[in-house]
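Hi everyone,

Forwarding the result from last night's run.
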Amino acid sequence: MLELRGYLSKRRPPLIVLAARGTSDNAAQFGRYLLEITTGIPVSLAAPSVTTLYGAKLHLENALVVGISQSGESTDINMFLESAREQGALTVGVTNEGGSTLARLARHSVVLAAGRETSVPATKTYTGQLLAMYLLAHALGAPIELEDLERLLEWTGKALELEPRIAALAAEYASIEHAIIVGRGLDYANALEFGLKMMEACYVVAERFSGADFLHGPIALVEKTFPVFVFAPPGPTWPGTRDIVSSLGRLGARVVAITDRSNPEAASLAGDTIVIPAEVAEQTSLPIEFLTPIPYIVPAQLFTAHLARSKGLNPDQPRTLTKVTRTV
C-alpha cells in the first residue's frame, strides 16, 4: 500500500472504476461513496459485460481501475481488469488470495489476509474489502488516518458482544419470508449486503433500497407487521432516515434499527433495535458516520446466521451456491 500511495501521490487519477460482482460489488458500492466523498474523484461501478460480452474497448487512459474479488478467480472481473490495463489504466486487485489470477493480473495487489472462509456466503472478506476501501482512500491522500481505522477493532468487538441478544431477536423473526432493507450513504452498501445474505442463507426475498429511493414508491409495499430493517447511523443521513422510521411506525411495520449509542433517537423510534454498546466514530479525525459500516454489518451478519438456524437451515451451505462463481 505504501508503494501505491507513493505512485498515486505523483499521478492522481481523473477517474476511478471499481469492478466486482456479488458481495464484492456491495463493497465496491461503499468504496464509491467513500472515495468520492473523501477525494472528490468521480467513481464508476463497472459493467464487466460491456467488455466481456460486447467487446467494447473503454477509454481508461490514466484511470485507476480496481478489481475486487474474494477468490480472485471471477472470470469477468479478471477479463475487465486485463482489458483496462491494455487501455492504459493503472490496475489494482483487492482479493483474499495472494496467489490468485487477479493478484497476478493487477499492477498492484491488496491482499486481505483474512484467512480462508469455510462458509459459502462471504462475511469476513466483505469487512476486509471495506477496510481495503479505507486504505485505498488513504493512498489517494484522503484525510483518513490509520489510527482512526485501528478503532474499528474495538467497535467491532462491541458488536460481537450482542450475539445473545441478536440470536433471541432472530428467533422472533423466524417465520418471515419477505423483508425490506434500507440504508443510505456510506451504509447503503450494508443494506445491499444484508439483503443479499438474507436471500443466500435464509431464502428470504429481501428488497434493498437507498433511503433516498425508498420514499419514491417502494414504501407502498409496506403494510402492517411487514419486516423492515434500517441502518440508522448518526450524521447527515439521519434526518431522512428518521422520517422513514417514523413513517414505517405509522404504517405498523415491524422495524428493526441497527445503530449505536451515539444515536439514541433511533432506538426510541424503532420497534426493535440492535444498538452497538459504543459511540462509533467518537474521538476520531473523521466526521461521525464514516466508520460505522464495518461495526454495523457485523450484527446484520449475526442476525442472518441465527435467522437461518431458526428456520432449520445451514447458513454456511446454502443450496445451489458455490464459493467461486465464474461468469463471462
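The chain has a mean pLDDT of 93.

Cheers,
N.
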